[in-house]
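Thread: quick sanity check before group meeting

JM: Hey all, I'm pulling together slides for Thursday and realized we never actually wrote out the predicted structure for the chain we discussed last week. Dropping the sequence here so it's in one place. If anyone has concerns about the input, flag it before I start.
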Amino acid sequence: MTASLSVIDWLLDSDPAIRWQVLRDLLDAPDAEWQAERAKVETEGWGADLLSRQDADGQWAGGAFMPADYTEEKWRELGQAWTATCFSLQQLHEYGLDPASERAHRTVDLIGRNSRWDEGGQPFWEGEVEECINARTVTAGVYFCVDVSPIVRRLLGERQPDGGWNCERCNGSHRSSFHTTINVLEALLAYEQGGGGTPETRAARAAGEEYLLKRGLFRRLATGEPIDERYLKLLYPTRWRYDLLRALDYFRAASLATGTDRDPRLAEAIGHLRSRRSEDGTWPLDWTMKGPVWFEMEAAGKPSRWITLRALRVLRWWDASTVVGGVV
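JM (edit): ok, ran it. Output follows.
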């Protein structure tokens, strides 16, 4: 499958956060070209907007997980807020803020000195107690060159018997969650790509992948029925939530990072992704999560550059790869 020129032009007529990934992942542009475009994230568009909202102490909204002034009443009325430090860092990582930039170094240092988790007052880069939060902290930490090895070791010890993870473990859960598992898989892959991989991290990641693959990325193991219809809906930003495209994008990244071939058990999910493509060659943003944000990037129900970029790079990888164990 090749993306039509008009769709590529549409993707390039956007924010630097989109453009540099189109250049790298869809057009195979030279490193210098896409890196020059990525550098604009700090000074233009969404990245610059988000950075302009940073507090003097390095945080966003005065808190690690929740804004400093966000009450339980506001949460019930408005939904979870997505403006605090952990979600802002996650977004800057996904935008592609250059981790070697002076602004990134200053941000990491200030957060390390000033940000404390709401749950227990732990320093930000030491992690919290929930696996989802800790996984995203690992992913951001690796990207921004922070040593997050202690959090990784904690995650390794929190795997469920069925192979994945669940942030409700502390409340007695003994079964994995798709949401938590995809967060941890992304974190472990980032840790390995950052040079910190061990036999233990690779074994844990393989077990987490198998947990998802055995279920076709969205089905119940016992009945084969879809676990949650929203897993089949296209969402961005995903925050902590799982969806089928997020999982496929992870398996693409893992395959390219490790040199492993695609697994035929992904075929049904790939077929669903193809079916969601609109006649104009784009994919829609099906929904967004409730709660305050710094700014809206795209509107639900409309063609989405974020979804289209991610879908195209997944299909490009799939169509160019070798299937393990059979032909799809």
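AS: nice. DSSP finds 14 helices and no strands in the chain. The chain has one domain: 5-320.
JM: adding both to the slides.
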